[in-house]
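Homework help board

Subject: predicted structure for assignment chain

Our instructor gave us this sequence and asked us to write out the predicted structure in token form, then describe one feature. I got the tokens but I'm not sure how to describe them. Can anyone check?
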Amino acid sequence: MDIPSFQSTYGQSWQKIVAKYQNPQRIRSIGQLLNTLIPYALVWWAMVKCLSVSFWLTIPLILIAAGLLVRIFIIFHDCGHGSFFKSHQANNFWGFITGVLTFTPYQYWRHEHAVHHSHSGDLDHRGAGEVWTMTVKEYLQASRWTRIRYRFVRNPVCLFVIGPSILFLIVHRLYFRKSGTNGYKSVYLTNVGILVTAVTMSYLIGLKTYLLIQLPVVMIAASAGVWLFYVQHQFEGVYWERHEKWDYVTEALKGSSFLKLPRVLQWFTGNIGFHHIHHLSPRIPNYFLERCYKENPLFQAIKPITLLTSLKSLTFRLWDEQHNRLVGFDYLRKLKYIQLT
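My token output:
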């Protein structure tokens, strides 16, 4: 479907279509907090009990806890958009609490993520809150060291295993960019919150037990979260454009994927697979995204990707501006052959 024809097709603007879903309901938000945080606490209790017998018994529970931590991050994410509660104070409070649980400074991350939403798919404004992606031309013109570094960063092991752990456990503990006083305070207070939690848990269950549970849970959840973010913006047919041609609506609906997940994974990921709707209207709470999708053919017109088809994203490394598509490093060999012939 041609995106500019949406208004003529449906007789109303996209703003009117999404407006009815943008009002968070306190009872739904509280319910989501309860059905996420209580199971997370119970799984932690079960892991502690199982660990006293054997670490191997905790592995299935670690996977469940990691899934719940991803769901907690979605609540954190909605608070950052001001879409989880109507109250600004409530969003900030629960944003901080869930930020401590997910090892992510709330105010600092909120600023970075807002930059991502305002420039996603804009080739002239790549950077904050995004996966490093070079164009074919930029890569060919880069220094040898930059190309080596880029290949290392874009390697799946680094991108989805090593990188996420470093990001959530180390990078989020530090303050680099100039995002104002709130950014510095956010990092500092989150670190204090994590330290207090770690000390309290170590006192209650022992430092070794705490680390044997907390580290793998965070690392697995971080990897899953980065993978989700990656396939939401790096997939076959994705829309990227230079700033003068960049369009917000087109970027949202063609530059953000509709990741169709099995129901259980959709629950753990808080409906974030409906990412095309989320980027069009970040003020929609996660629990209304599926309803918005089902009630509007506008969003159903977007071709979904699945867990299986999303694996193709692993081969993408560079953006080919000439053909408006993501390509792998093997494309460079073909390009060299074409140029020679």
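Reply (TA_rk): Your tokens look well-formed. For the description, you could write something like this. The chain has 18 helices and three strands. That's the kind of observation they're looking for.
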